[in-house]
Write a structure and sequence with these properties.
By secondary structure, this protein is mainly α. The protein has 18 helices and no strands. It has one domain: Na+/H+ antiporter like fold (Up-down Bundle), CATH 1.20.1530.20. The chain is 81% helix and 0% strand. α5 runs parallel beside α15, α6 runs antiparallel to α8 and α7 packs across α15. The longest helix is centred in the last third of the chain and has 32 residues. The protein starts with a helix and ends with a helix. 47% of the residues are buried.
Length: 326
């Protein structure tokens, strides 16, 4: 990785915070301009997801099994302990199906992109986290629909219209994923593929910043109108960020993970996949889409603030136990 790109990635948190703030100001001061930006969100997200997927080592999925204990802990925490925690926390929310759907969508999907950078900033094993991303992505694609059915049942069926939902998944997730894998395959054989991968590696941070600006500018007015509906999710998101690393810490002890792997597990447990599931929220019927998108964007804001706490707190809380005993 070039020094310039590494510097850009390590400063992505203040960049995202600044773009969210700028988007909020723009959307509140110029509501018309925010509405115009809404049409660009799908295209931005499609290219953003392609650029993020192209950096995930799908062709090296077996690398994660070099650390079987970490892989087992990662799956247990993200797809057993965290769903139970989310289900318990959702019990404190009002019985509002679009709101519940948004909370389940975003909190049940572990992050596969900028969690790697946060893990490195928090002195975790970012290489191990990078190797685990294909496993996390594949597992959530399979399990997320199952969890939605288990936790919402017929209510989810009443909110989700199959046609737009499937179309959104295919156009904004499946197609970028396929193109990213094809780019990786071409990078193994041809110079043009290598150049494409190198170019794509520069895109996630600026494109995510632009997407956050466009999303905030176009949705802030709608979110303000629905604030009384989405306000209850804020304490739930805060509680999730506080409790999920505790679950990871317990799992780290059970699986005897070293400090770097334990911190990586904690970051994975607390960092969610909001930009990947957001297109699914936009595909909902109009009123449900407004509420769901606002709830997911709110999670992004809470999470960015929480990551700053994680970066400082987790290295102190998760230490090498062999050192503590010596």
């Amino acid at each position: 990785m070039s020094a310039a790109r590494e510097k850009l990635e390590r400063h992505q948190v203040p960049i995202y915070a600044a773009m969210l703030l700028a988007g909020a100001v723009a959307g509140l001061l110029q509501p018309g301009a925010g509405s115009l930006l809404e049409g660009s969100i799908s295209a931005l997200l499609a290219v953003l997801l392609y650029s993020m997927f192209s950096q995930i080592p799908f062709l090296h999925l077996r690398a994660i099994w070099d650390n079987k204990r970490f892989a087992a802990a990662l799956l247990l925490v993200n797809f057993a302990a965290v769903p139970l925690l989310v289900w318990l926390l959702a019990g404190f929310l009002p019985d509002h199906p679009p709101l519940l759907l948004a909370v389940y969508l975003v909190l049940l999907a572990p992050c596969i992109d900028y969690v790697i950078v946060f893990t490195g900033l928090g002195k975790g094993d970012e290489k191990l986290m990078l190797a685990a991303t294909p496993l996390l992505f594949a597992a959530q694609l399979v399990l997320l629909p199952c969890y939605l059915w288990l936790m919402l049942g017929s209510e989810a069926a009443g909110i989700i219209e199959a046609g737009p939902f499937v179309e959104s998944f295919v156009v904004l997730i499946a197609v970028p994923l396929l193109l990213a894998v094809l780019t990786q395959l071409s990078g193994r054989r041809w110079e043009i593929g290598k150049r494409a991968l190198e170019g794509a590696a520069w895109l996630p941070v600026p494109l995510m910043a632009l997407a956050l600006f466009a999303i905030m500018a176009s949705q802030i007015g709608k979110a303000a109108d629905q604030f009384s509906v989405i306000a209850p999710v804020i304490p739930v998101y805060i509680a999730f960020m506080a409790l999920s690393p505790v679950l990871a810490g317990l799992a780290g002890r059970v699986f005897r993970l070293d400090a770097g792997a334990g911190r990586a597990l904690a970051f994975s447990a607390g960092t969610r996949n909001s930009l990947v599931v957001l297109p699914l929220a936009f595909s909902l019927p109009e009123e449900a889409a407004v509420i769901a998108a606002a709830a997911i964007v709110t999670q992004t804001i809470v999470e960015l603030a929480g990551e700053l706490v994680y970066v400082r707190a987790l290295p102190r809380l998760i230490r090498d136990r062999s050192r503590l005993r010596s």
